[in-house]
Amino acid sequence: MDHRAVDLRRIDIDQIHPGYFLPTVAGGLIASAAASDVGQHTLANIMLGLGLICWLVLGSRILNRLFIRPPLPTPLVPTLAIEVAPSAVAGLALFARDGGRIDIWVMLVSGYGLLLVIAQIRLLSLYLRLSFAPSFWAFTFSWSAVATIALHWITNDQPRVTASTPT
Fold first, then answer.
1. CA 113-118-120 angle, 5° bins
2. Where are the transmembrane segments (predicted)?
3. Are 114 and 150 within 8 A, CB to CB?
4. Are 40 and 95 in contact (CB under 8 A)?
5. How many structural domains are present in the chain?
6. 158 in a structural domain
7. Who's near 113: CB < 8 A, 6+ residues apart?
8. Mean pLDDT of the 68-97 span
9. Inter-axis angle of helices 41-68 and 85-97, to 10 degrees?
10. Higher-scoring residue by pLDDT: 100, 38
11. Which of 3-7, 27-31, 48-52 shows the lowest per-residue confidence on average (mean pLDDT)?
């Protein structure tokens, strides 16, 4: 049996990818939305905090890895689509928490989400060159979350209709 100490504090930066968002950030934010839906508001706030803190901590590490290290290995390239998921799921959790009301927090999270969706356009040519692989599941969760938050925006933010007066 090997008695060497294992240093659990050190994670190789090259092992980090956006897939780490799913059990941490998405788990907390989805749990927050679910708790809100069943009336567990304290639990919803705790899970929202968990999801947001994990997003802040992991997001900074993941972006650092994506900016300064070599590109992701080809099988992990689809996980880049997961970058759009945290803001979309956070928006859904905030909508669930506040009864569908659009407030400053929903707008901030959604604005950041829009930036990340636009950034995905740059990656489209990379995605189109990929051969199908098991990691393509990353596209489904991420873009279904984006589509869901877009539908919430469409149905919750009805434009005001004002009658114009002739001059």
1. 95
2. 20-36, 42-63, 75-96, 102-124, 136-154
3. no
4. no
5. 1
6. no
7. 84, 87, 88, 91, 146, 149
8. 94
9. 170
10. 38
11. 3-7
pLDDT confidence of residue 13: 82
CATH number for the domain harbouring residue 88: 1.50.10.150
pLDDT of residue 163: 53
> Which residue range is the domain that position 95 belongs to?
15-150
* pTM, full prediction: 0.84
Q: Domain for residue 163, yes or no?
A: no
In a domain, residue 2? The reply is: no
Distance (Å, whole) CA 8 – CA 16: 14
Higher-confidence position of 4 and 37: 37
CB 79 within 8 A of CB 19: yes
Q: Within 10 Å of residue 9's Cβ, how many Cβ atoms?
A: 5
